[in-house]
Design a protein that fits this description.
single chain, alpha/beta, Rossmann fold, 2 domains, seven-stranded mixed sheet, 26% strand
Length: 322
């Protein structure tokens, strides 16, 4: 049986130090003393610099690029805290890497999302706190409790204050970039009280997309594309172009929870018809990716509230409505 820690301790790896600091500020606790580096051969080296015996420990670490380094840091930190007799260990993972490898798309494919869930449990994590899994069924991959936060309400609240929505809301329409994102886009449309359109697409191979049709009338509208993550940005940029060229949209904006932005993503966004991209800061963007088209929205308040709720053994579900 997992015992409740008698005091709260927060630790952070190297994946998202700014977000970790912001979360710690919201919780009202400083980040614990911890050095996470590498040995000369590249092996991860973790040194916990204070006692954690009997504590409720939270490790804040996104599994973001470089994915394998950050995942290994998280696993080694969990192991270090377990061996130091922490009473309960929660892995706070704003962005859960490998989430897209959640099924066998073809013969002999691995299901790496499940493997990572098993690794976290084996390392010694007692529960996971995360945001916007790529697919909801990932919660069932874990044999430990998972608290799953949603990014859409945070995006909706921030976007409602933007000028392009406040000044001409009757021109706004929310767009799902594919059929799989309809539920998320519908939630955004309901929160902003606008209609919904869908980009029907065909994907010949990974990270390539051929637009087939636009379901819904976007002519003369300002479109807001809603997705859970943007990786190479090929899909969203092609979709935005189709909304303007084929659908006759007046303007295109976009938002997502996780800004992976790998490979040619930044160049594609710079050259795209997208006027502004709103992202949550679950992934820390390096300076070269902090372009004027991208606006970051901080998730520290909801993660801070969730951590306090877990420590107090109070319902996290209340945060979903707030």
């Amino acid at each position: 049986m997992i015992t409740h820690g008698n005091k709260i301790k927060l630790f952070a790896g190297n994946a998202c130090p700014k977000l970790a600091e912001a979360i710690a500020k919201k919780v009202g606790q400083p980040l614990g003393a911890c050095k996470v580096g590498t040995f000369s051969d590249g092996e991860i080296n973790v040194q916990i610099g204070e006692s954690v015996r009997g504590s409720d420990a939270f490790i804040i670490q996104s599994v973001s690029p470089p994915v394998n380094n950050n995942l290994m840091e998280l696993l080694v930190m969990i192991d270090a805290l377990r061996r130091a007799s922490a009473a309960r260990i929660t892995a706070v993972i704003p962005y859960y890497g490998y989430a897209r490898q959640d099924r066998k798309a073809q013969g002999r494919d691995p299901i790496t999302a499940k493997l990572v869930a098993d690794l976290l449990t084996t390392a010694g994590a007692d529960r996971v706190l995360t945001m916007d899994f790529h697919s909801a069924q990932l919660q069932g991959f874990f044999d430990i409790p998972v608290d799953h936060l949603f990014g859409t309400p945070i995006l909706a609240k921030a976007l409602a204050k933007e000028a392009f929505i406040k000044s001409a809301k009757e021109e706004l329409i929310v767009v799902s970039p594919d059929v799989g994102s309809v539920a998320r886009a519908r939630q955004m449309a309901q929160k902003l009280n606008v209609s919904l359109a869908i980009v029907d697409k065909r994907r010949p191979k990974p990270n390539m997309m051929e637009v087939m049709n636009i379901v819904g009338d976007v002519r003369g509208k300002r479109c807001l594309i809603v997705d859970d993550m943007i990786d190479t940005a090929g899909t969203i940029c092609q979709g935005a172009k189709a909304l303007v060229d084929v659908g006759g949209a007046k303007g295109v904006y976009a938002c997502c929870t996780h800004a992976v932005l790998s490979g040619p993503a930044i160049q594609r966004l710079e050259e795209s018809v997208i006027e502004k991209l709103f992202v949550l800061n679950t992934i820390e963007l390096p300076p070269e990716k902090q372009i004027s088209k991208i606006a970051e929205i901080c998730v520290a308040p909801i993660f801070g509230s969730a951590i306090k709720a877990i420590f107090d053994d109070s319902p996290v579900s209340e945060l979903y409505e707030k």
